């Protein structure tokens, strides 16, 4: 069903709005949702929003909103993921043999520090540029444009534009 698909995409779009609006927008989505997706809503509420408790408060969700919401990161033009640090960790694992002695570990860390300092200086001087795939640069640009429009356009238009960025 196309309407349900659009509604499910809106739940994903909650990651693209300011944190202080997430719960109110979730509650609107919850109200507008058909009974057929109640299991999904329960799961989402338990894990990402938190169940309501007394005094208009909510229980802490399994994953706090600040953990999965990327609006502030978009607004500050920061990376959306930690893929770069995971790539660095993988490279370290690949270059260091299993169970090295403390002396080998120190030598490997010094080598890595030296390589990192050289790369940082090359980046600073402009003799080297980090390039990302054009596809990801385009996605980041679209997401940043979207985030900058949050307070300018209507919520319906914002969610419509955000939904268009999700390809599922």
Briefly summarize what is shown.
With 168 residues, this protein is mainly α. Helices cover 65% and strands 2% of the residues. The protein has a two-stranded antiparallel ribbon.
Report on the structure:
The protein is mainly α and 168 residues long. It has 2 domains: 2-77 and 134-165, no CATH class; 83-125. The chain contains 9 helices and 2 strands. A two-stranded antiparallel ribbon has the order 1-2. It is elongated. The mean pLDDT is 87.
Low-confidence stretches: none
Q: Write down the domain tally.
A: 2
Task: Report the helical percentage.
Answer: 55-70%
**Side-by-side strand order of the widest sheet:** 1-2
Radius of gyration: 21 Å
Structural class: mainly alpha
Strand content: under 5%
Mean pLDDT: 87
For the sheet with most strands, the description reads: 2 strands, antiparallel
How far is it from the N-terminal to the C-terminal residue, by CA? 13 Å
Topology of helices and strands:
Layout: H1 2-13, H2 19-32, H3 38-49, E1 52-53, E2 57-58, H4 65-68, H5 71-75, H6 83-95, H7 102-125, H8 134-148, H9 155-165
Antiparallel strand pairs: 1-2
Helix pairs in contact: 1-9, 8-9
Q: What would the keywords be for this entry?
A:
168 residues; mainly alpha; 9 helices; two-stranded antiparallel sheet; single chain
């Amino acid at each position: 069903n196309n309407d349900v698909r659009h509604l499910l995409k809106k739940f994903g779009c909650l990651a693209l709005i300011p944190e202080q609006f997430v719960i109110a927008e979730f509650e609107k989505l919850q109200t507008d949702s058909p009974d057929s997706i109640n299991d999904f809503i329960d799961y989402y509420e338990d894990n990402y929003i938190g169940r309501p408790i007394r005094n208009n408060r909510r229980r802490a969700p399994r994953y706090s909103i600040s953990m999965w919401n990327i609006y502030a990161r978009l607004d500050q033009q920061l990376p959306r993921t930690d893929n770069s640090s995971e790539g660095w960790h993988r490279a370290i694992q690949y270059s260091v043999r299993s169970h090295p002695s403390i002396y080998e570990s120190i030598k490997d860390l010094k080598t890595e520090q030296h390589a990192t300092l050289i790369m940082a200086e090359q980046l600073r001087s402009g003799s080297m540029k980090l390039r990302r795939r054009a596809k990801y640069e385009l996605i980041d640009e679209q997401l940043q444009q979207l985030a900058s429009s949050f307070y300018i356009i209507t919520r319906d238009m914002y969610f419509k534009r955000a939904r268009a960025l999700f390809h599922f």
